[in-house]
């Protein structure tokens, strides 16, 4: 999608769709630069969630009355919308609370019954804790080992080293599509293709990809793909796991309870068909109604437009931040999402973030659930400014001006 077509969108009008962005913080207009943590919600998402509770609230798949039918239709409608958004079939999409749950589902239902001592799980240096800790727990219980693929100086994966680590004992590869710290966009289609050649099952963490780019999961060629709804303008407590049908059919349920069964007897239980056998209990119905509205919203904008808009914002922010003396940017891969982690020499990240908040600027500080990555860089914490299509060039300029002011106060 070319930049001229993207500029045809009235981004100021788009921004007005987000009620929270009109508020002030500490007497200053809010500049929200923490979308990698959670995305803001357009009015249509808020209204859809509110409308469900006001007019349709009932449980799903448990009643034949009108409200129950409406709730089920809305919930399953959200599954269909999300499946179309991802380029997959709804019957292969497990609705869950987010990427953390989705990865744990794979860890306990696929990996734990299959891995043994002598097997290995391959991850990368840039993974979020949610794509590290579940595999460590599986390794501890099975005797499998963890292998780690390292990075190049610019924050991109060392692909040659990654491929060299794909040895016969590796049974599973877990990799982020987009780094939540560096913004690095990994070439997951090529990586998953190489893994598949070697009989390695691939799990892709798409939490930071789904909000920023058009996705075609079958084209990626992975075995599992996980997303988080609240990062893509949807409510918290929503997300999904896509899996190849053969995996879903072979995997045992992760949780037991209602909805995931066909028949329960004291001498045994017949489980429901996938994906429902992985969806025990009452789901976050209103949340998924809201996620369906978020998918509608993003689809109307066009994810190619979103990606181009955010690329322009990233370029502007990077250029302006380079003018700040003593500022170091972590992660400068050629293919990068709109995430900038940085440090200012002589200033602690938490102090920067606290003083920026007094200027109305919301950035995240800390280790960003990626301790091994920051250890590799030799730093205790960074600040992270993460952009979304609803941000503006003027906000970026105001952010940099605030950063210069804070720097003068600290140094």
Automatic annotation (TrEMBL):
Enzyme class, broadest EC rank: transferase
Keywords attached to this entry: Pyridoxal phosphate, Transferase
Cofactor: pyridoxal 5'-phosphate
EC number: 2.8.1.7
GO biological process, one term: cysteine metabolic process
Reaction it catalyzes: (sulfur carrier)-H + L-cysteine = (sulfur carrier)-SH + L-alanine
Gene Ontology molecular function: cysteine desulfurase activity; pyridoxal phosphate binding
Domain of life: Bacteria
Pfam families linked: Aminotran_5
Domain Aminotransferase class V, residue spans: 31-399
Sequence similarity: Belongs to the class-V pyridoxal-phosphate-dependent aminotransferase family. Csd subfamily.
Described purpose of this protein according to its UniProt entry: Catalyzes the removal of elemental sulfur and selenium atoms from L-cysteine, L-cystine, L-selenocysteine, and L-selenocystine to produce L-alanine.
Matching NCBIfam families: sufS
Name of the protein described by the UniProt record: Cysteine desulfurase
């Amino acid at each position: 999608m070319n930049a001229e077509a993207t500029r045809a969108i009235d981004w100021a009008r788009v921004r007005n769709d987000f009620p929270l962005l009109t508020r002030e913080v500490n007497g200053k207009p809010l500049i929200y630069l923490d979308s990698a943590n959670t995305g803001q919600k357009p009015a249509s998402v808020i209204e859809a969630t509110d409308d469900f509770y006001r007019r349709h609230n009932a449980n799903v798949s448990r009643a034949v009355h009108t409200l129950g039918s409406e709730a089920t239709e809305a919930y399953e409608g959200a599954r269909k919308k999300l499946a179309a958004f991802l380029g997959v079939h709804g019957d292969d999409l497990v609705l869950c609370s987010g990427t953390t749950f989705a990865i744990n589902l794979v860890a306990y239902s696929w990996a734990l019954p299959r891995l043994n001592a002598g097997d290995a799980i391959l991850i990368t240096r840039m993974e979020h804790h949610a794509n590290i800790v579940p595999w460590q727990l599986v390794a501890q219980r099975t005797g499998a080992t963890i292998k780690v693929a390292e990075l190049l100086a610019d924050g991109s994966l060392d692909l040659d080293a990654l491929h060299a680590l794909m040895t016969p004992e590796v049974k599973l590869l877990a990799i982020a599509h987009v780094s939540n710290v560096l913004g690095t966009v990994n070439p997951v289609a090529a990586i998953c293709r190489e893994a598949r050649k070697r009989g390695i099952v691939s799990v892709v963490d798409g939490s930071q990809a789904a909000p920023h780019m058009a996705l075609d999961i079958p084209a990626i060629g992975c075995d599992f793909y996980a997303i988080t709804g609240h990062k893509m303008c949807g409510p918290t407590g929503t997300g999904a796991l896509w899996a190849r049908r053969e995996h879903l059919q072979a995997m045992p349920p992760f949780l037991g309870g209602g909805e995931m069964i066909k028949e329960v007897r004291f001498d045994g239980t017949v489980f429901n068909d996938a994906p429902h056998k992985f969806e025990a209990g009452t789901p976050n119905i209103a949340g998924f109604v809201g996620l369906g509205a978020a998918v509608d919203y993003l689809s109307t904008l066009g994810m190619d437009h979103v990606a181009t808009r955010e690329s322009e914002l990233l370029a502007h922010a990077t250029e302006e931040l380079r003018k700040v003396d003593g500022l170091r940017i972590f992660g400068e891969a050629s293919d990068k999402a709109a995430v900038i982690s940085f440090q200012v020499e002589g200033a602690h990240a938490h102090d920067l973030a606290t003083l920026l908040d007094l200027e109305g600027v919301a950035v995240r500080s800390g280790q960003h659930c990626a301790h091994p990555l920051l250890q590799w860089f030799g730093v205790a914490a960074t600040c992270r400014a993460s952009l979304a299509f609803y941000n503006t060039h003027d906000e970026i300029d105001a952010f940099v001006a605030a950063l210069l002011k804070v720097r003068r106060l600290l140094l």
